[in-house]
Protein backbone atom coordinates (compact mmCIF):
# COMPACT_ATOMS: atom_id res chain seq x y z
CA UNK A 1 0.00 0.00 0.00
CA UNK A 2 2.65 2.52 1.13
CA UNK A 3 5.10 1.07 -1.37
CA UNK A 4 2.73 1.49 -4.28
CA UNK A 5 2.08 5.03 -3.20
CA UNK A 6 5.84 5.65 -3.32
CA UNK A 7 6.07 3.98 -6.71
CA UNK A 8 3.37 6.27 -8.03
CA UNK A 9 5.52 9.29 -7.20
CA UNK A 10 8.33 8.05 -9.42
CA UNK A 11 7.06 9.21 -12.82
CA UNK A 12 6.16 12.70 -11.58
CA UNK A 13 9.53 12.96 -9.78
CA UNK A 14 11.32 11.95 -12.98
CA UNK A 15 9.36 14.44 -15.07
CA UNK A 16 9.90 17.34 -12.68
CA UNK A 17 13.42 16.34 -11.69
CA UNK A 18 14.56 16.27 -15.32
CA UNK A 19 12.69 19.49 -16.15
CA UNK A 20 14.26 21.32 -13.21
CA UNK A 21 17.58 19.57 -13.81
CA UNK A 22 18.60 22.39 -16.12
CA UNK A 23 18.26 24.83 -13.21
CA UNK A 24 20.63 22.71 -11.15
CA UNK A 25 22.96 22.48 -14.16
CA UNK A 26 22.96 26.27 -14.42
CA UNK A 27 23.71 26.60 -10.72
CA UNK A 28 26.61 24.14 -11.06
CA UNK A 29 28.13 26.46 -13.64
CA UNK A 30 27.78 29.59 -11.47
CA UNK A 31 28.35 28.23 -7.96
CA UNK A 32 30.69 25.34 -8.64
CA UNK A 33 32.62 26.11 -11.81
CA UNK A 34 32.80 29.90 -11.56
CA UNK A 35 32.58 29.94 -7.74
CA UNK A 36 30.14 32.81 -8.18
CA UNK A 37 27.12 32.81 -5.81
CA UNK A 38 24.61 33.91 -8.43
CA UNK A 39 21.11 34.65 -7.12
CA UNK A 40 19.78 35.84 -10.49
CA UNK A 41 18.28 32.37 -10.90
CA UNK A 42 14.99 33.12 -9.10
CA UNK A 43 14.36 35.88 -11.64
CA UNK A 44 15.76 34.28 -14.77
CA UNK A 45 13.69 31.11 -14.30
CA UNK A 46 10.49 33.18 -14.35
CA UNK A 47 11.95 35.27 -17.17
CA UNK A 48 12.15 32.21 -19.39
CA UNK A 49 8.59 31.25 -18.49
CA UNK A 50 7.28 34.79 -19.06
CA UNK A 51 8.92 35.17 -22.45
CA UNK A 52 7.64 31.85 -23.76
CA UNK A 53 4.12 32.36 -22.33
CA UNK A 54 3.72 35.83 -23.79
CA UNK A 55 5.02 34.81 -27.20
CA UNK A 56 2.81 31.74 -27.38
CA UNK A 57 -0.17 33.89 -26.41
CA UNK A 58 0.78 36.29 -29.18
CA UNK A 59 0.65 33.39 -31.61
CA UNK A 60 4.38 32.88 -32.13
CA UNK A 61 5.60 29.31 -32.71
CA UNK A 62 6.60 27.78 -29.32
CA UNK A 63 10.13 27.06 -30.55
CA UNK A 64 10.67 30.77 -31.21
CA UNK A 65 9.46 31.49 -27.67
CA UNK A 66 11.89 28.94 -26.26
CA UNK A 67 14.85 30.31 -28.23
CA UNK A 68 14.08 33.87 -27.15
CA UNK A 69 13.69 32.70 -23.54
CA UNK A 70 17.23 31.27 -23.75
CA UNK A 71 18.54 34.56 -25.14
CA UNK A 72 16.72 36.56 -22.44
CA UNK A 73 18.18 34.33 -19.70
CA UNK A 74 21.65 34.70 -21.20
CA UNK A 75 21.36 38.49 -21.18
CA UNK A 76 20.05 38.53 -17.58
CA UNK A 77 23.08 36.51 -16.46
CA UNK A 78 25.41 38.84 -18.36
CA UNK A 79 23.83 41.80 -16.52
CA UNK A 80 24.69 40.26 -13.15
CA UNK A 81 28.21 39.56 -14.38
CA UNK A 82 28.67 43.11 -15.63
CA UNK A 83 27.37 44.61 -12.37
CA UNK A 84 29.95 42.56 -10.52
CA UNK A 85 32.96 42.90 -12.82
CA UNK A 86 32.54 46.42 -14.22
CA UNK A 87 30.70 48.24 -11.43
CA UNK A 88 32.44 46.17 -8.71
CA UNK A 89 29.16 45.36 -6.97
CA UNK A 90 29.38 42.44 -4.56
CA UNK A 91 28.44 39.21 -6.34
CA UNK A 92 25.53 38.34 -4.04
CA UNK A 93 24.11 41.86 -4.27
CA UNK A 94 24.52 41.96 -8.06
CA UNK A 95 22.41 38.80 -8.33
CA UNK A 96 19.77 40.10 -5.94
CA UNK A 97 19.57 43.39 -7.86
CA UNK A 98 19.01 41.70 -11.21
CA UNK A 99 16.57 39.22 -9.65
CA UNK A 100 14.54 42.09 -8.19
CA UNK A 101 14.59 44.06 -11.42
CA UNK A 102 13.49 40.95 -13.30
CA UNK A 103 10.35 40.76 -11.15
CA UNK A 104 9.14 44.01 -12.73
CA UNK A 105 10.46 42.98 -16.14
CA UNK A 106 8.55 39.69 -15.95
CA UNK A 107 5.32 41.49 -15.05
CA UNK A 108 5.90 43.79 -18.00
CA UNK A 109 6.57 40.91 -20.35
CA UNK A 110 3.44 39.00 -19.33
CA UNK A 111 1.33 42.13 -18.94
CA UNK A 112 -0.24 40.55 -15.86
CA UNK A 113 0.86 38.31 -13.01
CA UNK A 114 0.16 35.02 -14.77
CA UNK A 115 -0.66 33.49 -18.13
CA UNK A 116 -2.30 30.09 -18.47
CA UNK A 117 -1.25 27.91 -21.40
CA UNK A 118 -3.59 24.93 -20.93
CA UNK A 119 -5.85 25.80 -23.83
CA UNK A 120 -3.19 26.73 -26.38
CA UNK A 121 -0.71 24.68 -28.35
CA UNK A 122 2.73 24.57 -26.77
CA UNK A 123 5.97 22.86 -27.75
CA UNK A 124 4.87 19.87 -25.66
CA UNK A 125 1.34 19.58 -27.11
CA UNK A 126 2.35 17.12 -29.90
CA UNK A 127 3.91 14.88 -27.21
CA UNK A 128 0.84 15.07 -24.99
CA UNK A 129 -1.38 14.08 -27.90
CA UNK A 130 0.39 10.79 -28.58
CA UNK A 131 -1.84 7.84 -27.76
CA UNK A 132 0.33 6.50 -24.99
CA UNK A 133 0.67 7.16 -21.29
CA UNK A 134 1.46 10.89 -21.10
CA UNK A 135 4.53 10.27 -18.93
CA UNK A 136 6.41 8.25 -21.53
CA UNK A 137 6.93 10.92 -24.21
CA UNK A 138 7.18 13.79 -21.71
CA UNK A 139 9.80 12.09 -19.52
CA UNK A 140 11.73 11.00 -22.62
CA UNK A 141 11.69 14.57 -23.91
CA UNK A 142 12.99 16.07 -20.67
CA UNK A 143 15.55 13.27 -20.41
CA UNK A 144 16.94 14.06 -23.86
CA UNK A 145 17.02 17.79 -23.14
CA UNK A 146 18.68 17.72 -19.72
CA UNK A 147 21.13 14.91 -20.48
CA UNK A 148 21.86 16.53 -23.84
CA UNK A 149 22.77 19.83 -22.20
CA UNK A 150 24.78 17.97 -19.57
CA UNK A 151 26.94 16.44 -22.31
CA UNK A 152 27.20 19.73 -24.18
CA UNK A 153 28.44 21.35 -20.96
CA UNK A 154 30.95 18.55 -20.43
CA UNK A 155 32.29 19.09 -23.94
CA UNK A 156 32.45 22.85 -23.51
CA UNK A 157 34.38 22.59 -20.25
CA UNK A 158 37.05 20.58 -22.05
CA UNK A 159 37.69 23.23 -24.68
CA UNK A 160 40.27 26.00 -24.42
CA UNK A 161 37.59 28.51 -23.40
CA UNK A 162 36.06 25.99 -21.01
CA UNK A 163 39.43 25.50 -19.29
CA UNK A 164 39.81 29.28 -18.96
CA UNK A 165 36.35 29.50 -17.39
CA UNK A 166 37.07 26.72 -14.91
CA UNK A 167 40.38 28.31 -14.00
CA UNK A 168 38.61 31.65 -13.47
CA UNK A 169 36.56 30.03 -10.73
CA UNK A 170 39.48 28.07 -9.36
CA UNK A 171 42.36 30.54 -9.42
CA UNK A 172 41.55 33.92 -10.93
CA UNK A 173 45.01 35.44 -10.41
CA UNK A 174 46.75 32.54 -12.11
CA UNK A 175 44.66 32.45 -15.26
CA UNK A 176 44.88 36.24 -15.60
CA UNK A 177 48.68 36.01 -15.65
CA UNK A 178 48.19 33.52 -18.49
CA UNK A 179 46.37 36.17 -20.50
CA UNK A 180 42.70 35.45 -19.85
CA UNK A 181 40.29 38.32 -19.26
CA UNK A 182 38.56 36.84 -16.20
CA UNK A 183 35.84 39.52 -16.27
CA UNK A 184 34.76 38.27 -19.69
CA UNK A 185 34.80 34.67 -18.48
CA UNK A 186 32.60 35.57 -15.49
CA UNK A 187 30.08 37.43 -17.66
CA UNK A 188 30.00 34.65 -20.27
CA UNK A 189 29.67 31.92 -17.65
CA UNK A 190 26.82 33.63 -15.84
CA UNK A 191 25.14 34.16 -19.20
CA UNK A 192 25.32 30.45 -20.03
CA UNK A 193 24.18 29.51 -16.52
CA UNK A 194 21.10 31.71 -16.67
CA UNK A 195 20.35 30.66 -20.25
CA UNK A 196 19.99 27.09 -18.90
CA UNK A 197 17.79 28.33 -16.07
CA UNK A 198 15.57 30.34 -18.41
CA UNK A 199 15.24 27.37 -20.76
CA UNK A 200 14.10 25.30 -17.79
CA UNK A 201 11.55 28.00 -16.88
CA UNK A 202 10.27 28.08 -20.45
CA UNK A 203 9.81 24.29 -20.55
CA UNK A 204 8.31 24.02 -17.07
CA UNK A 205 5.73 26.72 -17.89
CA UNK A 206 4.60 24.71 -20.92
CA UNK A 207 4.65 21.46 -18.97
CA UNK A 208 2.53 22.74 -16.09
CA UNK A 209 0.36 24.85 -18.37
CA UNK A 210 0.93 28.28 -16.90
CA UNK A 211 3.49 30.96 -16.17
CA UNK A 212 3.31 32.85 -12.91
CA UNK A 213 5.40 35.78 -11.70
CA UNK A 214 6.12 33.96 -8.42
CA UNK A 215 7.13 30.61 -9.90
CA UNK A 216 10.86 31.29 -9.54
CA UNK A 217 10.84 32.05 -5.83
CA UNK A 218 13.13 29.69 -3.95
CA UNK A 219 14.57 28.24 -7.15
CA UNK A 220 18.16 28.90 -6.08
CA UNK A 221 17.69 27.09 -2.77
CA UNK A 222 15.94 24.16 -4.42
CA UNK A 223 18.72 23.98 -7.02
CA UNK A 224 21.41 24.03 -4.34
CA UNK A 225 19.59 21.28 -2.45
CA UNK A 226 19.54 19.20 -5.64
CA UNK A 227 23.26 19.76 -6.23
CA UNK A 228 24.19 18.86 -2.67
CA UNK A 229 22.15 15.65 -2.84
CA UNK A 230 23.64 14.80 -6.22
CA UNK A 231 27.21 15.45 -5.13
CA UNK A 232 26.74 13.26 -2.08
CA UNK A 233 25.81 10.43 -4.45
CA UNK A 234 28.13 10.85 -7.45
CA UNK A 235 30.87 13.15 -6.11
CA UNK A 236 32.26 16.35 -7.59
CA UNK A 237 35.83 15.48 -8.50
CA UNK A 238 35.40 16.11 -12.21
CA UNK A 239 33.21 18.30 -14.38
CA UNK A 240 31.37 15.22 -15.63
CA UNK A 241 30.49 14.24 -12.08
CA UNK A 242 29.37 17.76 -11.17
CA UNK A 243 26.97 17.99 -14.12
CA UNK A 244 25.74 14.47 -13.50
CA UNK A 245 25.20 15.39 -9.83
CA UNK A 246 22.95 18.24 -10.95
CA UNK A 247 20.63 15.98 -12.94
CA UNK A 248 20.63 13.03 -10.53
CA UNK A 249 20.27 15.32 -7.52
CA UNK A 250 17.39 17.16 -9.10
CA UNK A 251 15.46 13.93 -9.65
CA UNK A 252 16.13 12.66 -6.11
CA UNK A 253 15.22 16.04 -4.65
CA UNK A 254 11.87 16.03 -6.45
CA UNK A 255 11.34 12.44 -5.31
CA UNK A 256 12.01 13.36 -1.67
CA UNK A 257 9.57 16.28 -1.98
CA UNK A 258 6.91 14.10 -3.59
CA UNK A 259 7.27 11.46 -0.88
CA UNK A 260 7.22 14.17 1.78
CA UNK A 261 3.97 15.54 0.39
CA UNK A 262 2.47 12.04 0.34
CA UNK A 263 3.49 11.59 3.97
CA UNK A 264 1.64 14.75 4.90
CA UNK A 265 4.16 17.58 4.44
CA UNK A 266 2.06 20.70 3.80
CA UNK A 267 2.85 22.24 0.39
CA UNK A 268 3.15 25.61 2.14
CA UNK A 269 6.06 24.25 4.20
CA UNK A 270 7.99 23.03 1.15
CA UNK A 271 10.44 25.91 0.93
CA UNK A 272 11.08 25.76 4.66
CA UNK A 273 11.87 22.06 4.42
CA UNK A 274 14.13 22.65 1.41
CA UNK A 275 15.93 25.47 3.21
CA UNK A 276 16.44 23.27 6.25
CA UNK A 277 17.90 20.56 4.00
CA UNK A 278 20.45 22.98 2.54
CA UNK A 279 21.36 24.39 5.97
CA UNK A 280 21.95 20.89 7.27
CA UNK A 281 24.04 19.86 4.29
CA UNK A 282 26.18 23.00 4.40
CA UNK A 283 26.33 23.14 8.18
CA UNK A 284 27.25 19.59 9.11
CA UNK A 285 30.85 19.86 7.86
CA UNK A 286 31.30 23.05 9.92
CA UNK A 287 29.94 21.35 13.02
CA UNK A 288 32.30 18.45 12.41
CA UNK A 289 35.04 21.05 11.97
CA UNK A 290 35.92 19.78 8.55
CA UNK A 291 37.44 22.27 6.17
CA UNK A 292 36.48 20.49 2.97
CA UNK A 293 32.76 21.13 2.90
CA UNK A 294 33.23 24.86 2.78
CA UNK A 295 31.96 26.63 -0.32
CA UNK A 296 34.71 28.41 -2.19
CA UNK A 297 33.13 31.59 -3.57
CA UNK A 298 34.50 34.69 -5.24
CA UNK A 299 33.47 38.32 -5.06
CA UNK A 300 31.59 38.09 -1.78
CA UNK B 1 64.95 44.02 -23.82
CA UNK B 2 63.14 45.03 -20.64
CA UNK B 3 63.34 48.67 -19.61
CA UNK B 4 61.99 50.21 -16.46
CA UNK B 5 62.27 54.00 -16.48
CA UNK B 6 62.01 56.14 -13.37
CA UNK B 7 59.19 54.06 -11.90
CA UNK B 8 57.36 55.51 -8.91
CA UNK B 9 54.47 54.13 -6.88
CA UNK B 10 52.90 55.71 -3.84
CA UNK B 11 50.30 53.92 -1.73
CA UNK B 12 47.59 55.76 0.23
CA UNK B 13 48.63 59.02 -1.35
CA UNK B 14 47.67 62.14 0.59
CA UNK B 15 46.95 60.36 3.86
CA UNK B 16 49.09 60.13 6.97
CA UNK B 17 49.77 56.51 6.00
CA UNK B 18 51.32 57.59 2.70
CA UNK B 19 54.04 55.19 1.67
CA UNK B 20 56.40 55.56 -1.24
CA UNK B 21 56.88 51.91 -2.18
CA UNK B 22 58.92 52.40 -5.32
CA UNK B 23 60.79 55.67 -5.57
CA UNK B 24 62.16 56.37 -9.02
CA UNK B 25 63.66 53.03 -10.00
CA UNK B 26 65.26 52.65 -13.43
CA UNK B 27 66.47 49.29 -14.58
CA UNK B 28 67.62 48.02 -17.97
CA UNK B 29 67.83 44.28 -18.48
CA UNK B 30 69.57 42.77 -21.47
CA UNK B 31 68.38 39.60 -23.08
CA UNK B 32 69.40 36.62 -21.01
CA UNK B 33 70.08 38.64 -17.86
CA UNK B 34 69.31 36.80 -14.65
CA UNK B 35 68.85 39.51 -12.05
CA UNK B 36 68.35 38.78 -8.38
CA UNK B 37 66.75 41.40 -6.17
CA UNK B 38 67.15 41.50 -2.40
CA UNK B 39 66.09 43.94 0.25
CA UNK B 40 64.40 43.86 3.62
CA UNK B 41 60.64 43.88 4.16
CA UNK B 42 59.03 46.96 2.69
CA UNK B 43 61.96 47.74 0.41
CA UNK B 44 59.64 47.66 -2.61
CA UNK B 45 60.68 44.35 -4.16
CA UNK B 46 57.23 42.90 -4.67
CA UNK B 47 55.74 46.24 -5.67
CA UNK B 48 58.38 46.54 -8.37
CA UNK B 49 57.41 43.11 -9.72
CA UNK B 50 53.72 44.01 -9.51
CA UNK B 51 54.35 47.17 -11.54
CA UNK B 52 56.21 45.21 -14.19
CA UNK B 53 53.52 42.51 -14.29
CA UNK B 54 50.60 44.94 -14.30
CA UNK B 55 49.05 43.79 -11.03
CA UNK B 56 49.14 47.49 -10.12
CA UNK B 57 50.03 50.59 -12.11
CA UNK B 58 52.76 53.19 -11.46
CA UNK B 59 52.10 56.85 -10.63
CA UNK B 60 55.06 57.83 -12.78
CA UNK B 61 57.49 56.15 -15.12
CA UNK B 62 57.40 53.59 -17.92
CA UNK B 63 57.70 49.85 -18.37
CA UNK B 64 58.88 48.71 -21.80
CA UNK B 65 59.14 45.04 -22.73
CA UNK B 66 60.73 44.06 -26.02
CA UNK B 67 60.13 47.51 -27.48
CA UNK B 68 56.45 47.65 -26.44
CA UNK B 69 55.29 50.17 -23.87
CA UNK B 70 53.17 48.13 -21.45
CA UNK B 71 53.03 50.60 -18.54
CA UNK B 72 49.24 50.78 -18.40
CA UNK B 73 48.25 47.53 -20.07
CA UNK B 74 46.08 45.34 -17.79
CA UNK B 75 47.62 42.13 -16.50
CA UNK B 76 45.97 39.78 -18.98
CA UNK B 77 47.06 41.87 -21.98
CA UNK B 78 50.75 41.77 -21.14
CA UNK B 79 50.63 38.09 -20.22
CA UNK B 80 52.15 37.08 -23.55
CA UNK B 81 55.43 38.72 -22.53
CA UNK B 82 55.59 37.50 -18.95
CA UNK B 83 55.86 34.36 -16.91
CA UNK B 84 55.39 34.79 -13.21
CA UNK B 85 55.71 32.63 -10.13
CA UNK B 86 54.46 33.64 -6.71
CA UNK B 87 55.63 32.70 -3.26
CA UNK B 88 52.51 30.67 -2.48
CA UNK B 89 52.68 27.32 -4.34
CA UNK B 90 48.87 27.32 -4.48
CA UNK B 91 48.80 30.50 -6.54
CA UNK B 92 50.38 29.26 -9.73
CA UNK B 93 48.09 26.36 -10.58
CA UNK B 94 44.37 25.59 -10.68
CA UNK B 95 44.04 22.90 -8.03
CA UNK B 96 40.73 21.39 -9.18
CA UNK B 97 42.12 20.80 -12.67
CA UNK B 98 44.49 18.10 -13.86
CA UNK B 99 48.21 18.45 -14.53
CA UNK B 100 47.73 18.29 -18.30
CA UNK B 101 44.86 20.78 -18.18
CA UNK B 102 47.04 23.22 -16.26
CA UNK B 103 49.89 22.78 -18.72
CA UNK B 104 47.60 23.29 -21.69
CA UNK B 105 46.41 26.60 -20.24
CA UNK B 106 50.01 27.73 -19.88
CA UNK B 107 50.66 26.50 -23.40
CA UNK B 108 48.19 29.11 -24.68
CA UNK B 109 49.67 31.99 -22.72
CA UNK B 110 48.54 35.27 -24.26
CA UNK B 111 46.86 33.56 -27.22
CA UNK B 112 43.22 33.66 -28.24
CA UNK B 113 41.34 30.76 -26.69
CA UNK B 114 38.76 29.06 -28.89
CA UNK B 115 36.30 26.18 -28.74
CA UNK B 116 39.00 23.78 -29.88
CA UNK B 117 39.76 20.79 -27.65
CA UNK B 118 41.78 21.84 -24.59
CA UNK B 119 44.33 19.00 -24.48
CA UNK B 120 45.28 17.50 -27.82
CA UNK B 121 47.10 14.23 -28.35
CA UNK B 122 50.23 15.75 -29.83
CA UNK B 123 50.55 18.32 -27.07
CA UNK B 124 50.05 15.61 -24.44
CA UNK B 125 53.21 13.90 -25.70
CA UNK B 126 55.04 17.20 -25.43
CA UNK B 127 53.79 17.71 -21.84
CA UNK B 128 55.02 14.23 -20.95
CA UNK B 129 58.44 15.12 -22.29
CA UNK B 130 58.81 18.38 -20.38
CA UNK B 131 57.44 16.81 -17.19
CA UNK B 132 60.05 14.09 -17.45
CA UNK B 133 62.76 16.72 -17.16
CA UNK B 134 61.45 17.68 -13.73
CA UNK B 135 62.33 14.15 -12.55
CA UNK B 136 59.37 14.11 -10.18
CA UNK B 137 57.51 11.27 -11.88
CA UNK B 138 54.71 13.62 -12.89
CA UNK B 139 54.82 12.40 -16.50
CA UNK B 140 52.79 9.36 -15.49
CA UNK B 141 50.22 11.45 -13.61
CA UNK B 142 48.95 13.72 -16.38
CA UNK B 143 45.32 13.16 -15.43
CA UNK B 144 45.81 13.61 -11.70
CA UNK B 145 44.25 16.65 -10.09
CA UNK B 146 46.88 19.20 -9.07
CA UNK B 147 45.37 19.26 -5.57
CA UNK B 148 47.04 15.86 -5.03
CA UNK B 149 50.56 17.31 -5.44
CA UNK B 150 52.88 18.50 -2.68
CA UNK B 151 53.97 22.14 -2.39
CA UNK B 152 57.31 21.45 -4.04
CA UNK B 153 55.72 19.50 -6.88
CA UNK B 154 53.20 22.28 -7.43
CA UNK B 155 55.88 24.95 -7.48
CA UNK B 156 57.94 22.88 -9.96
CA UNK B 157 54.84 22.51 -12.14
CA UNK B 158 54.27 26.28 -11.87
CA UNK B 159 57.87 26.83 -12.96
CA UNK B 160 57.28 24.63 -15.95
CA UNK B 161 54.04 26.46 -16.79
CA UNK B 162 55.67 29.88 -16.45
CA UNK B 163 58.49 28.94 -18.82
CA UNK B 164 56.61 26.64 -21.22
CA UNK B 165 55.94 29.28 -23.84
CA UNK B 166 59.35 30.95 -23.31
CA UNK B 167 58.28 34.38 -22.02
CA UNK B 168 60.27 37.52 -22.78
CA UNK B 169 60.62 38.03 -19.05
CA UNK B 170 60.35 35.61 -16.16
CA UNK B 171 59.36 37.10 -12.79
CA UNK B 172 60.07 35.05 -9.68
CA UNK B 173 58.62 36.44 -6.47
CA UNK B 174 60.31 34.63 -3.57
CA UNK B 175 59.12 31.46 -5.21
CA UNK B 176 61.03 29.14 -2.89
CA UNK B 177 60.30 30.95 0.38
CA UNK B 178 57.28 28.85 1.33
CA UNK B 179 59.01 25.51 0.75
CA UNK B 180 61.07 23.44 3.18
CA UNK B 181 64.86 23.97 2.75
CA UNK B 182 65.47 20.74 0.84
CA UNK B 183 62.60 21.28 -1.60
CA UNK B 184 63.51 24.95 -1.92
CA UNK B 185 67.02 23.95 -2.99
CA UNK B 186 65.64 21.56 -5.60
CA UNK B 187 63.28 24.17 -7.01
CA UNK B 188 65.95 26.87 -7.19
CA UNK B 189 68.35 24.50 -8.97
CA UNK B 190 65.62 23.56 -11.40
CA UNK B 191 64.92 27.25 -11.95
CA UNK B 192 68.57 27.94 -12.68
CA UNK B 193 68.71 25.01 -15.10
CA UNK B 194 65.63 26.08 -17.06
CA UNK B 195 66.66 29.73 -17.14
CA UNK B 196 70.12 28.86 -18.50
CA UNK B 197 68.82 26.30 -20.94
CA UNK B 198 66.46 28.73 -22.63
CA UNK B 199 68.52 31.84 -21.94
CA UNK B 200 65.46 33.45 -20.30
CA UNK B 201 65.58 37.04 -19.12
CA UNK B 202 64.74 36.69 -15.45
CA UNK B 203 64.12 38.86 -12.41
CA UNK B 204 64.12 36.95 -9.14
CA UNK B 205 63.09 38.54 -5.88
CA UNK B 206 64.44 36.70 -2.89
CA UNK B 207 64.72 37.03 0.84
CA UNK B 208 67.75 34.83 0.95
CA UNK B 209 71.09 36.51 0.38
CA UNK B 210 72.97 33.28 -0.34
CA UNK B 211 70.51 32.63 -3.16
CA UNK B 212 70.80 36.19 -4.45
CA UNK B 213 74.58 35.99 -4.56
CA UNK B 214 74.87 32.47 -5.89
CA UNK B 215 72.43 32.68 -8.79
CA UNK B 216 72.19 35.09 -11.68
CA UNK B 217 74.64 37.45 -13.33
CA UNK B 218 73.49 40.62 -11.63
CA UNK B 219 72.28 41.49 -8.14
CA UNK B 220 70.32 44.53 -7.06
CA UNK B 221 69.64 45.57 -3.51
CA UNK B 222 66.61 47.73 -2.83
CA UNK B 223 66.19 49.94 0.17
CA UNK B 224 63.18 52.17 0.82
CA UNK B 225 62.06 52.01 -2.79
CA UNK B 226 65.42 52.88 -4.31
CA UNK B 227 68.24 50.88 -5.85
CA UNK B 228 71.01 50.96 -3.28
CA UNK B 229 73.49 48.54 -4.72
CA UNK B 230 73.80 47.14 -8.23
CA UNK B 231 76.51 44.64 -8.99
CA UNK B 232 77.14 42.40 -11.99
CA UNK B 233 79.62 40.30 -13.88
CA UNK B 234 82.98 39.49 -12.31
CA UNK B 235 82.36 41.68 -9.31
CA UNK B 236 79.17 39.75 -8.51
CA UNK B 237 80.92 36.39 -8.90
CA UNK B 238 83.41 37.26 -6.19
CA UNK B 239 80.85 38.88 -3.90
CA UNK B 240 80.36 37.28 -0.48
CA UNK B 241 77.62 37.53 2.11
CA UNK B 242 80.11 38.92 4.61
CA UNK B 243 81.08 41.71 2.33
CA UNK B 244 77.47 42.73 1.73
CA UNK B 245 76.76 42.63 5.45
CA UNK B 246 79.84 44.76 6.16
CA UNK B 247 78.77 47.39 3.67
CA UNK B 248 75.03 47.39 4.21
CA UNK B 249 74.54 45.75 7.60
CA UNK B 250 72.74 48.80 8.96
CA UNK B 251 70.01 48.59 6.32
CA UNK B 252 69.70 44.82 6.53
CA UNK B 253 68.06 44.60 9.90
CA UNK B 254 66.02 41.78 8.54
CA UNK B 255 67.66 38.64 9.84
CA UNK B 256 65.88 36.39 7.38
CA UNK B 257 68.06 37.87 4.67
CA UNK B 258 71.13 36.33 6.13
CA UNK B 259 69.58 32.95 6.83
Report a brief summary of the structure:
The complex is a heterodimer of chains A (300) and B (259). Helices cover 74% and strands 2% of the residues of chain A.
Textual characterization of the structure:
The complex is a heterodimer of chains A (300) and B (259). With 300 residues, chain A is mainly α. Helices cover 74% and strands 2% of the residues of chain A. Chain A has a single domain (2-117, 124-287), classed as ABC transporter involved in vitamin B12 uptake, BtuC (Orthogonal Bundle), CATH 1.10.3470. Chain A has helices at residues 2-33, 41-57, 62-85, 91-110, 125-128, 135-156, 160-170, 172-177, 182-208, 219-234, 239-262, 270-287; strands spanning 114-116, 210-212. A two-stranded antiparallel sheet of chain A has the order 1-2. Chain B is α/β, with parallel strands linked by helices and 259 residues long. Chain B contains eight helices and ten strands. Chain B has helices at residues 45-53, 99-107, 121-134, 151-163, 181-198, 209-214, 233-237, 241-248, and strands at residues 2-11, 19-29, 34-38, 60-65, 68-69, 82-85, 169-173, 202-205, 218-223, 226-232. In chain B, helix 4 packs parallel to helix 5 (181-198). The longest helix of chain B is centred in the C-terminal third of the chain and has 18 residues, at 181-198. The two termini of chain B are 33 Å apart. Classes of the chains: A mainly alpha (300), B alpha/beta (259). Chain A binds chain B through residues 156, 158-164, 166-167, 170-171, 173-182, 237, and chain B through 53, 75-77, 79-80, 82, 84, 86, 90-97, 101, 104-106, 108-111, 113-119, 145, 161.
Question: Helices, strands, pairings?
Answer:
The complex is a heterodimer of chains A (300) and B (259).
Chain A: H1 2-33, H2 41-57, H3 62-85, H4 91-110, E1 114-116, H5 125-128, H6 135-156, H7 160-170, H8 172-177, H9 182-208, E2 210-212, H10 219-234, H11 239-262, H12 270-287
Antiparallel strand pairs in A: 1-2
Chain B: E1 2-11, E2 19-29, E3 34-38, H1 45-53, E4 60-65, E5 68-69, E6 82-85, H2 99-107, H3 121-134, H4 151-163, E7 169-173, H5 181-198, E8 202-205, H6 209-214, E9 218-223, E10 226-232, H7 233-237, H8 241-248
Helix pairs in contact in B: 2-4, 4-5
Amino acid sequence: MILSSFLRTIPISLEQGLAYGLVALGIVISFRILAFPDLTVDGSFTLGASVVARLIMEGAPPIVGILLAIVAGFLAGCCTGLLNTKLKINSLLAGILVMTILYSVNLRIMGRSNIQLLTVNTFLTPLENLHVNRFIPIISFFFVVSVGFKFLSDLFFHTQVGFAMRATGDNEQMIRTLGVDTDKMTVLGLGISNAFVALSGALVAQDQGFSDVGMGIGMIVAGLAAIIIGEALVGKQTVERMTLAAIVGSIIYKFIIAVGLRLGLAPTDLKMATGAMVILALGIPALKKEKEGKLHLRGV
Amino acid sequence: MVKVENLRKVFKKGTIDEKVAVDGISLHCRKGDFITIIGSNGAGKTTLLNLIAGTCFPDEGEVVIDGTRVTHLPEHKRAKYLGRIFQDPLMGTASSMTIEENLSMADLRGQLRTLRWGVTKSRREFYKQVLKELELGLETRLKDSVSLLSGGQRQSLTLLMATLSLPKLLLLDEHTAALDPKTAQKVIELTDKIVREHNLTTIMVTHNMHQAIRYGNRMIMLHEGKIQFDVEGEEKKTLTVDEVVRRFGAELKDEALLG
